[in-house]
Amino acid sequence: MEQIQHKYVEVSGLKLHVAELGTGPKVVLFLHGFPEIWYSWRHQMVAAAAAGYRAIAFDFRGYGLSQQPPEPEKASFDDLVLDVIGVMDNLSISKAFLVGKDSGAFPAFHVAVLHPERVSGVVTLGIPFMLPGVSVIPMHLLPKGFYILRWQEPGRAEADFGRFDVKTVIRNIYMLFCRSELQVASDDQEIMDLADPSAPLPPWFTEEDLKVYSTLYENSGFRTPLQVPYRTLGIDCGVKDPKITAPGMLIMGEKDYVLKFPGMEEYIRSEKVKEFMPNLEIIFHEEGNHFIQEQLPEEVNELLITFLNKHST
């Protein structure tokens, strides 16, 4: 961890924070979700670099140590695509493996569709192929207290989170979303009320980890992260008949709550997802939860390095 180098690159007039470990022509670019950050990939960066890859993770605009966009309420998933390509261009990377987790999977897929010549392969954790749009998740089939629906309401999550310090918010989100159930609040609750403050942190997420996350989100706040992904999830990205022909791998934990989304498990297990990614390998891990790369780093690292080595030229 101490050997990870940190720098800033300018993309679309914004300074983005980049963490990097390892050297060489074979590049792996890690894309975080929420409430994650570059640090979410610490275990995978070390493993990839040790295997001979140049491992890079960065904070998307408005997250962590990266600069806020001038109008966060106008940010969209298109901006994350610009971030990925901009970081690659700034670091003189012509082609890379993209590894995305949670909402970081969306720009991984989007870049692979729009810029296939820049992508060696796509690995995602917890999210099968999908692009932003009205049909990405059938929200009408979910209860009105579902966390995404709540956080899509302007001001609601801000008020909910604002009752606590940043450390408590991050702690609560990690504790809630490592469960296998969908997080749904009743009419007299907010999402933060679902957390049990007395519950201990899981062994794979230490107080030191929580401190790192808290410090990064104290810097950025939640203004942009609530906009992207949650409040732009239903905006169509304009891509028709998308297909990714690059090699792909989906790692799903059997205890990931995302499998409880309407139609999600069938979409994956029936291999309908391969209509969009014909060269996709699907792996289920019996004990994995939504934070599988932090929960089970050795298992994820082994799967990742095997995939990278298989498809490196």
UniProtKB/TrEMBL annotation:
InterPro entries: AB_hydrolase_1, AB_hydrolase_fold, Epox_hydrolase-like. Belongs to the AB hydrolase superfamily. Epoxide hydrolase family. Keywords: Hydrolase. It comes from the Eukaryota. This is AB hydrolase-1 domain-containing protein. Residues 27-138 form the AB hydrolase-1 domain. Gene3D superfamilies: alpha/beta hydrolase. Pfam families: Abhydrolase_1 (PF00561). GO terms for molecular function: hydrolase activity. It comes from Vitis rotundifolia (Muscadine grape).
